[in-house]
Amino acid sequence: MNIVEKEGEDYGYAEFTATIDTIIFGRETYDYVFNKEGASHYDNGQRDVYVITKSKRKNIGRTIFYYGGIDKLV
What we know:
Elements: H1 13-17, E1 22-26, H2 27-37, E2 48-52, E3 63-66, H3 70-73
Parallel strand pairs: 1-2, 2-3
């Protein structure tokens, strides 16, 4: 935990993510959270998760590892 975090506080994150159907973020962030919290932190089976990466990886559930051009994704 760092000095600005309060244990058990998510600062509205869960409430916010409950309102969206797609999450897009980078592979390093995905790997960090996956290792710390597990896959279900993002992929709850009810939304698409796109992980932007430089290398091809096998998709897991609704988590899509995207390595193409960003213009095509958008």
